[in-house]
Fold:
Amino acid sequence: MLVMGVDIGSAACKCVILKDGKEVIAKSVIPLGTGTVGPKRAVDEALAESGLTKDDISRVLVTGYGRFVFDGADSQKSEISCHARGVAFLLPSTRTIIDIGGQDIKVIKINEKGHFDSFAMNDKCAAGTGKFMEAMAAILNVKVWELGEISKASTAEVSVSNTCTVFAESEVVSILSSNEKLEDIVAGIHRSVAKRVAALAHRNGIIKDVAISGGVALNEGVVKTLSEELKTEVLATPDCQIAGALGAALLAWEELMQQQ
Structure:
């Protein structure tokens, strides 16, 4: 039997089709968030990849910012529950999840069954989020997905002291006028993000192993710097961006089994 999980975020929409509660047979990531055609495109792309139609799907569960306005789902769950289940499936040893989304940061403690015990969230400021990274990339005239690779060449990290997006933009413009190397500026931006995220993580407490989810987790520079700030390895997986959709699919499977 087949189920679908849909994660409608502020910056991207993700979809996962799961077979028999354990096999991912299709997945999609569309860089368009809630209020756009992103959800439909994510679903259509996953169906096209699998060669399936909506009639083949036994249950659909939706999560994320846009879950309340998504038509076609059988149920919905919070992104906290879904990221907990998705990351636990991908990285079973995880006990603390750092989810860096488009507009917020969440630190989630989970148990060995993938259920969350507690969480802390920063949603009052874009500092340290995907939107912050996009703003910094725009100032530097590079693509946001290039930042991780660029930072690898850094030999003299430049300090970016402001965590506020608006002030950080002005600071980076000033640094650029000082002819600092691009890779050193990017490394400084990664440090700024890591410090912001680590401060929230320490307030909520950290239990090893620590894993990261969300699109920012694809940035190796952020993962490396965050590991340094937390003084422990931060685990990442290539599927970190679909963790919420995967968790939604896993929960959809559980609901389906309860109906049998």
